[in-house]
Amino acid sequence: MDLKTPLAAALLCALALPLRAPAASAPPPAPVADDTARILIFTRTAGFRHDSIPKAVATLEALAAQQSLHADHTEDAAVFAPERLARYRAVVFASTTGDVLDAAQQRALEQFVRAGGGFVGVHAAADTEYGWPWYGGLVGAWFRSHPPGLQTARVRFEDGRTPAWTVTDELYDYRDNPRPRVRVIATVDERDYEGGTMGHDHPIAWCHAWDGGRSWYTGLGHDAAIYDDPRFRAHLARGLRHAAGLDEDC
Fold it and tell me: Which end of the chain has the least Cβ crowding within 10 Å, N or C?
C-alpha cells in the first residue's frame, strides 16, 4: 500500500484513534402508572338512535374534563369485561337503546357496580335492556311512552336550593313511579303540557344506591339543543360527580 495516498492516510488515522465501547442501548421508558380518574361513555343502540348522541358525547367529555375526569367514548360492547371496566370510576349510558350487552357483558357491569362503580343514565338509557331485571333496578325505571314531539314544561328540583327552570325536550313517561325505590332529584309538571300520563308526581331525574354502587339518571337529553343549556349542563355535571364518587350529594 502506498502510505502517501489519501486512502492510506485515512486508514492510519483511524487505527491511531483509541477504541471505544459501543454505546449502550437507551433503557426502555419506565412504565407510567395510569391513575387518571376515568369514566366510560357508552352509546351503542339496538333500537331508535338519537341524533343528539354526538352532542351528548361532546358535552359529557367537556363536563368530565372540568371535574378532572378523563372520558373514553365507545360503542364497542367488548369493553364490558371485568379487566377493562376496572380502570373506570363510572359508566355513562347516553341514549342507549335496546339489547346492547350479551350475558357475559351484563355480568361484567354487575360486577363493576357491586365493586363500588358508578352509573349515569341519560334519557334513553331507560329504553334499554328490558329483558335484564338487574339493569331495570340499576336505572330505577323503564321507559313506557312519551307525548309526540318536544314539550315545554317546568322542571322542579327537590333539593330546596336549585331553582326551577323551563325546559323544551322529549318528556318520558315511565312504566311506574320510581319514587319508592330512589331519591327523586327533579319532577316535571304535567300541567304545562299535554300527553303526560304519570300524574301530579312525575319524576324526571333521580339517584340511588344500587347493589354496592351509585346510580344517577336523568330523563332529559333527547334534543341536541338542550346540551347548550347551562342549567342542563350543571345537572349532568352533578350526576357525573356523584357517579364518579366525587360528591356524595346527587
Answer: N
For the chain, what is the mean pLDDT? 89
Which of 92, 218, 209, 208 shows the shortest CA–CA distance to 143? 218
Integer angstrom CA distances of residue 67 from 52, 59, 72, 216: 23, 13, 14, 17
> Which CATH number, 3.40.50.880, 3.40.190.10, 3.40.50.620, 2.40.40.20, labels domain 38-142+204-243?
3.40.50.880
Query: Which pLDDT score, from 0 to 100, does residue 25 have?
Result: 34
